[in-house]
Every structure is written in C-alpha cells, then in structure tokens.
Amino acid sequence: MIILAIDTSCDETSVAVTEGRKVLSHLEYTQVATHAQWGGVVPSLAKRAHEDRIEWAIEKVLSGKKGQTGWSMDDIDAIAVTVGPGLAIALEVGIRTACMYAKRYDKPIIPVNHMAGHIYSCFVQNTRGNPARPITFPYLALLVSGGHTELVRIDDHHTFSIIGETRDDAMGESLDKAARMLGFGYPGGPVIERMAERVDNVDTFRFPRPMIRSEDLDFSFAGLKTSFLYYTQKMDPAEKLEKVDLLASSYQEAAFDSAIRKLAKAIDMTGITSVLVAGGVAVNTRLRSLVRSTVRLRGGHVHFPPYKYLNFDNAAMIGVAAGHMEPVQYVSSQNLDTLDRIPRLRLA
Ligand code: KG4
Ligand code: ZN
C-alpha cells in the first residue's frame, strides 16, 4: 500500500511517500529560522508558513527525486495525516489539505497520532529496506521531544500504554528554557549539547533530580529549572560567562539522569528489554550513550531512529505508522466531516 503522508503539527512542513516501512520520497521544510527570533514557536507564523508551503511540498514529493519517475495520485492508496497532538492551527492546515486531496482523488484518510509517529520512526527503512531488523514486540519507548516526555509500553502495532510521563515540562522544553537562561536562543537542546561536550559532560554543580525516588515512572523537570534559575541569578555575569559550559553540562546531566533512572525502573518493573528512544532529544549523543549503557547493563538493546532526520518532526514516520494501522481506522472520502484536529490527543 502506497501512502502519501503529511505532518504539520508544529514547525516543520513535512510530506512523504511511504510503502510499509519504506520511505520512497520525503521532504521537510523547517521553519526554525522564522521562529528563532521569537525564542520559540509562534503558532500564527507556523500556520502561515505551512499554508505557504504545503501544496508545493506535496507536488514536489510526488514528483520524486532526480532520475525517479515519481508518483501520480493514481498510485497513492491512502493519505495519512497527523491529527494531534500539536498546535491546533498548525494541525488544521495539514488536515484541510489532506481532505482536499482525499476528496479530489477519492482516497481514504488515515488519521495518525504524532507520538505514534515518533515511535514508528525507530522502524523506518530507506528505499532499499535498510535497516532490515524485524519488529518484535513488546517494546518500551522513551519519547523525548519538545512537547512530550513519556514512557510507553508497546505490546503490538498501535497497542500502547503510557506507563510514565512528565508532570510539568517536557525534556526538550526544559533544555530550551535552560539555554534561554544562559542567553541562547531556540532551539536550546543542540546548544546545550555542544557546550556540555566541550567539558566532557561533567556534572560539576549536581543540580537536583526531582522525583527520582518516587515509586511511579513519572518525570518532573520544573524543580531542576527553578533551582538552575536561582543558582544562575546569584552568579555575577562574568562568573556565569566563565562557567557557562559547566552550567550547561551539569543541567543536561541532571535532566538526562532523571530520565534514565525512570527508564531503568521501567525495564526492571516490566521485564521488557527492547527499548526505543525517539523525539528531538533522542538525537543527543550523550543521552544515547547513557541509554545504551543502562539498557545493556540489563541485557537489552536500544533502537534509535536510524536516520538523523527521523529524530525530528517528519512525515516519513507518520506514513510508516499509518501503514501499520487497521483499515477500520481509515476515514473514507465521503465521511471527511468526522475528521478533526485533536491538539491534546494521547497515545493510549
Ligand atoms: O521532536 P521535536 O523535533 O519536536 C517536537 O515534537 O517537539 O523536538 C524538538 C526538541 C526541542 O526542544 C529541541 O531543543 C530538542 O528537541 N533538541 C535537542 C537536540 N536537538 C533538538 N535536545 C538535545 N540535544 C540535541 N542535539
Ligand atoms: Zn514531534
């Protein structure tokens, strides 16, 4: 089944053509530069940028890469679109466009949960079917993005239960806020990672790790943020500048340590040792190495999204997630009024 997939949940306008786990064609247009000057994603600007690009992106993806013949809408069996979670007015652009194509070409729509997409990003293959590794349930997923931090148990295709989640900030959001307190712009995650690498990821300041001793599998990053704010406010500007790498590194260690401990607890509680890590923060080298050693120590193995672009928001993962959904979940082109955005859609 060949799927045309669309994701406009936040600040990437992304379109893909997928077949099963394979990505046949893919394109994303990032709006980072548009939002950077505002210190975060501005929904109204995101909406307009999606509107400006979406149809162009669809036509471009369908035309294929140089040397490829591409696809006509006759080749497409269904249109997958992210319906949530995400920014309401950004999601609407993708859904409206998907409906327009579905009506015009009489195709069913597959509504996809964006977080399910992040999970399936670990299973995505290139055109040649690599990596070939089979999918073998059950899995535990640690999802770490700008808007979400969740531990999810996956027992079969699209059979999820959230077993832990953040009570306040998401991990990516927390790194973005710390970077802002140090005077850096959005997105802050990559800046923090580079500064931490310069000092070998030391944990000089030992900032608090809220909730690590709680019995459940939930996370909390707000206390860490507040303690970091007080600490940096007390420093004089010259000292803060001199110690900026150490501060960034210590913050990152505290944030990652709290997540890793809950991941370890989740493995011990469930006995599931196949771990998926996905979402924007999953690209971080330090997080990857901490997760690898934690999981290996428990005799398990970890799967990250196999290609870099798959860590971030993209339509390829949406197409692959859709390709593993049941036909009863499709919405026919005669029934599109039932389709709506669900900004706070949950996985389970
Ligand atoms: O998954 P994503 O692209 O968008 C959402 O669905 O939220 O994640 C974006 C988040 C941002 O908070 C960004 O700071 C973080 O991912 N991020 C990183 C890195 N690159 C992006 N965090 C840590 N290290 C990185 N290298
Ligand atoms: Zn995302």
Summarize the structure.
By secondary structure, the chain is an alpha/beta fold. It contains eleven helices and ten strands.
Write the layout of secondary structure elements.
Blueprint (H helix, E strand, L loop, with lengths): L1 E6 L4 E8 L2 E9 L1 H5 L6 H20 L15 E7 L3 H18 L3 E5 H7 L18 E6 L4 E8 L2 E7 L5 H11 L7 H10 L23 H13 L2 H6 L1 H27 L3 E5 L6 H13 L3 E3 L11 H8 L26
Parallel strand pairs: 1-4, 4-5, 6-9, 9-10
Antiparallel strand pairs: 1-2, 2-3, 6-7, 7-8
Helix pairs in contact: 2-3, 4-11, 5-7, 5-9, 6-9, 7-9, 9-10
The chain binds 5'-O-[(R)-(carboxyoxy)(hydroxy)phosphoryl]adenosine and zinc ion.
Structure in words:
- By secondary structure, this protein is an alpha/beta fold.
- The chain is 40% helix and 18% strand.
- It has eleven helices and ten strands.
- It has a five-stranded mixed beta sheet, with helices on both faces. Strands 8-7-6-9-10 form a five-stranded mixed beta sheet, with helices on both faces.
- Strand 9, helix 10 (285-297) and strand 10 (301-303) form a beta-alpha-beta unit.
- Helix 4 (114-120) packs across helix 11 (315-322).
- The longest helix is centred in the C-terminal third of the chain and has 27 residues, at 244-270.
- It is globular and about 65 Å long.
- 49% of the residues are buried.
- The model has no long low-confidence stretch (mean pLDDT 96).
- Bound molecules: 5'-O-[(R)-(carboxyoxy)(hydroxy)phosphoryl]adenosine and zinc ion.
- 5'-O-[(R)-(carboxyoxy)(hydroxy)phosphoryl]adenosine binds at residues 10, 145-147, 172-173, 175-176, 187-190, 193, 279-281, 283-284, 312-313.
- The site of zinc ion has 4 residues, from helix 4.
